[in-house]
Amino acid sequence: MTQPILSLRGITKHFGGVKALTDVSLDLEPGKVVALVGDNGAGKSTLVKVMSGVHRPDSGTYQFEGREVAVSNPAEVADMGVQTVYQDLALCDNLDAVQNLFLGRELTGPWYTGYRVSRAAAERRAKEVLKRLRLDSISLTRNVGAMSGGQRQNIAIARSILWEPKVVLLDEPTAALSHSAAEQVGDLVRELASHGLAVLVISHDIHHFVLDNTDRIEVLRLGRNAASFNSRDVTGEQVVNAMVGGNEAVNMAG
Amino acid sequence: MTDISIPPTPTATPTRSLTERLGNELSFVPVAVGLIALFLFFATQSDVFLTSRNLSNLLVQSTVTGIIALGLVFVLLTGEIDLSVAATSGVASVFMAKLVMDFGLPVPLAILAGVALGGLVGAASARWVTLIGVPSFVVTLGVGLVLNGIQLLLLPRTGRYNLMNSGVDQLAATHVTGPMAWGLVLCAIALFALVMGSTWRSRQRAGLSASFNAGVLLPVVIVALFLVGVLVFLENQRGLPMPVILFLALLGVMSYITSETRFGTYLYAIGNNAEAARRAGIKVDRIKITAFAIAGGMAAFGGILSASRSLGVSVSSGGGVGGGALLLESIAAAVIGGVSLFGGRGMVVGALFGALIIATVSNGLNLMGVANEARLIVTGLLLVVAVSIDRGIERLARPG
Q1: Distance between CA A49 and CA A56 in Å, rounded?
Q2: What is the pLDDT of residues B148-179, one digit of tens each?
Q3: Cross-strand bridge partners of residue A143
Q4: Global pTM?
Q5: Quick one: which of A28, A173, A222, B162 could link to A6 by a disulfide (CB 3.0–4.6 Å)?
Q6: Which pLDDT band holds residue B372 (cuts at 50, 70, 90)?
Q7: Interface contact flag, A103 B256, Cβ < 8 Å
Q8: Helices B372-397 and B349-367 meet at what angle, rounded to 10?
C-alpha cells in the first residue's frame, strides 16, 4: 500500500457539549479515491472542515507528507496543497469558465496597461487543464450560469486543481445532480486520481457513485470510524448497514 | 435523489447563442436599436430634430445625466445602489463654487477639490454600508438628505453663486474645432484600435481562436463611424463641445476599467456572488468602497459640469431636495442602458445610450410641442419597457 500523503490520527472535536468527532483516523494516498460516507450528523462535514483548516481539532494529529502539521486556517491548508470544493461551488454565474477558474488569481499585464487581465494566457492555461482532465467539452467562453449542473461541478473541481494541489476534498459533489451528470463527475474524480492526486469524496450516492468511482470507503457513525471497505469487494447493502449501525462493524480493507 | 433535469451527455457548444451574447457583451444592442428608432421617429415628426444645432444641444443635454449614470454603473454592478449621487453632484458643485468665489482658489484646483469631495462622500457611505451591514439604499438616501442640508449651509444668503465670467463657465463653453478636433478623434480611434488589436494579437500568439474581422475590424469601424459622425455633424455647429469630449473620454476610460482590469472583473463577480468572490480572496469591502468613491467622484464632476453650463449654483443644483429628476434620470439612464439593478450585469457604455435615450425623448417631445406631463409619462414607460426587455433576455439566457 502506498504511503499516505495526508493522515489523521485520533482526531477529536467538540462543539460545546456535543462530541462531533471521537478518535477518528483517516488516510489519503496519492492516486486513490476515498469515499467518506455516513448518516446525517455522522461527522463527515466536520472531518472535512478539520482537514481543510476551517476547524481545529481538540486532539489528534494531522500529518501531511509524513510531517505533523499544526493547521490553523483554510488559506494555509490550501497553500500546503490541500484544496476543498464545497457543495455550493462558489462560482459566479455571470462569468465564463476562464474567469471563474482564475477568479482572484488573474494573470495581469504590465503597469502601463493598468494591470490589464491577460485573458489569452489564462484561456490557454485553462484549455490545457481542461484537456488534461478530459473536460474539453466545456466551453471556455460561455457564462457558467448557462451550463449544466455536472459541468458547473466539474469547473469548480478543475479550479481547485488549477494550482496543482496534492489532495482534493470534495463535499457532496453529486448531491444535486442527475444520474448522468453524476457520472461525468465520477469520470473526473477517477481522472484526478490517475494524475496522482489523493481524492476524498463525501457522497450519499452509495450504489451508483461511490461503488463505481472510489477505491476505498470509510464509514463514519456518530462521530467515530465505523468501518472501512475496499470498494471492489463490498456491496451497497454492507456499506449502508455500517452507516446505520447494523449488527457487525466490519473491516475488510486490505 | 432529486433530478434537476440536465441534458444527458452535454454536446460541445462552443458557439454562444444570441440571447446569451445579448446578456453579456452585446447588452447595449437593444437600447442602441431603440435609440435609432427614436431618432427616425422624431426625424419624421420635426424638421428641426436632425439639424446639427439641435443634435449638438441634445448631446450636451445628455452629458450631465450620462456622467452621473456612468459612475453609478460601478455601484450597480456590485449589486448596491447610491441614491445620493444627485445630492453629491449638488453639494460638490456648490463647494467648488464657494472655493472659487469666496476663497479665490484657481478653477482647476477647485474642480479637483469638488471631485475629491464627491469621492470621499461615496467612500464614506460605502464604508458605513460594509461596516454595519445596512442596505446601501437606506444609507445613501439618508446621506443624500444630509448633503442637501450641507448644500444649503454652503450657499450664501442670496441662495446662489453666479459663475458668469468666473472661469468655471469656460468648462462647458469651450468648443474644440478644426485640426485639434480631428486630432482628438483620431487619437481616440487609434487608442481603441490598439486595445482591440492587442487582444487579438495576444490570442493569436497563444494559439487561440481569434477573428480579426469580428474582433478588431468591426468594432473599430463602428467606433470610428460614431466618432467621426459626431465630429462631422458638430463641426457645422461650433465644433466639439467640451462636455461631450469629457463624457466620451470618461466613457472610454471607465469601459477599459470595467472590461479589462481585475477591479472590473471583481465588480461583476461581487454583483453575482459576493460569497464566492470573498472565498476567491477578493477584498469585497474594498472593491465596493472604491466603486462608491468612483460614483461619488463622477457625480461631483457631473454637478460641476452642470454648474458650468447653467452659469451658477443654487438651491436647485443637484436636482434640488431629494435629488428630484436628476437622480431618477441618472438611475434610469443606467437601467435603460441595460445595467441590472440586481448587480453583475450590464456595461458602462449603457450609460451613454441610456442618457441619450432620455435626452432624445425629452428633446424630441419638446420639439413636437408635447407638454411636460406627457414627457414624464413617456420617460417612465420607457424605463419599464427597458427593464422588462432586460429581464426577458436574462431569462432566455438561462438553461432549461
Answers
A1: 8
A2: 999 999 999 999 999 999 999 999 999 999 89
A3: A96
A4: 0.89
A5: A28
A6: confident
A7: no
A8: 150
Which contacts of B46-52 are long-range, i.e. CB under 8 A and separated by 24 or more positions?
B46/B364, B46/B367, B46/B368, B48/B367, B49/B363, B49/B364, B49/B367, B52/B233, B52/B234, B52/B236, B52/B237
Residue A231 forms contact with B (CB below 8 Å): no
- Which CATH architecture is the domain B21-177+238-393 placed in? Orthogonal Bundle (1.10)
pLDDT at B390: 74
Q: Of all helices (H) and strands (E), which one includes residue B360?
A: helix B349-367
The whole-angstrom separation of Cα B62 and Cα B40 is: 18
Report the distance separating Cα B338 and Cα B135, nearest Å. Answer: 23
3-state secondary structure of A116: strand
Helix or strand or coil: residue A252? coil
Q: For B82, what's the count of Cα atoms within 13 Å in the CB-facing half-sphere? A: 41
pLDDT confidence bin for B378, thresholds 50/70/90: confident
Angle at B344 (CA atoms; ends A129, B8), nearest 5 degrees: 50
Local structure of residue B216 (DSSP, 8 states): I
pLDDT, tens only, A71-115: 888 888 988 999 999 888 889 999 999 999 999 989 898 888 888
Q: Provide the CA B180 distance to its chain's centre, in angstroms.
A: 26
Sign for the CA dihedral angle at B391, B393, B397, B399 comes to positive
CB distance A186 to A173 below 8 Å = no
- Report the amino acid identity of residue B384: V
B345: closest chain A residue by CA: A94
Between CA A179 and CA B224 the distance in angstroms is: 52
Q: How far, in Å, CA of B178 to CA of B184, rounded?
A: 10
Task: Name chain A contacts of B203, Cβ cutoff 8 Å.
Answer: 119-120, 123
Chain A interface includes B179 (CB < 8 A): no
Pick the closest to residue B89 from B334, B241, B359, B295 (CA basis).
B295
Nearest to B6 among A103, A138, A178 (CB): A178
DSSP state of A117: B
A131 contact B CB<8A: no
DSSP 3-state of B11: coil
Are B14 and A99 within 8 A, CB to CB? no
Residues 6+ apart with CB under 8 A from B184: B176, B240, B245
**Is B3 in Cβ contact with A114 (below 8 Å)?**
no
Q: In B, which residues are within 8 Å of A90 by CB distance? A: 273, 275-276, 279-280
- How far, in Å, CA of B140 to CA of B113, rounded? 21
Q: Is B178 exposed, middle or buried (0-12, 13-18, 19+ CB in 10 A)?
A: exposed
Tell me phi and psi for residue B267, to 5 degrees.
-60, -45
**Domains contained in chain A, CATH given:** 6-90+166-244 (3.40.50.300)
Strand-pairing partners, residue B175, are B241
A226 closest CA partner among A23, A32, A71: A23
Would you say residue A249 has pLDDT above 60?
no
Domain boundaries, chain B: 21-177+238-393
Which of A150, A249, A250, A251 shows the shortest CA–CA distance to A209?
A: A150
- B238 and B175 in contact (C-beta within 8 Å)? yes
